[in-house]
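Backbone-to-sequence.
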């Protein structure tokens, strides 16, 4: 489930915006990124950092993660 955080002001070009995503049973970060149109390889580091995830293979159903989005 994807939920966007919408702000009235425009983001600066150098700002990264995020949306929250609730992990479903069987999800992997790679699968989530592909489904959301996010490049897994170039965004993995920021996804791990912003969510405090130490191992990309250790996410669980019901966990809410933040994903970077582009305009």
């Amino acid at each position: 489930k994807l939920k966007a955080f919408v702000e009235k002001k425009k983001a600066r070009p150098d700002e990264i915006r995020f949306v929250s995503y609730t992990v479903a049973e069987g999800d992997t970060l790679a699968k989530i990124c592909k489904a959301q149109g996010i490049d897994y390889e170039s965004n993995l580091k920021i996804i791990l950092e912003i969510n405090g995830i130490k191992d990309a293979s250790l996410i669980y159903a019901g966990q809410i993660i933040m994903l970077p989005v582009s305009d």
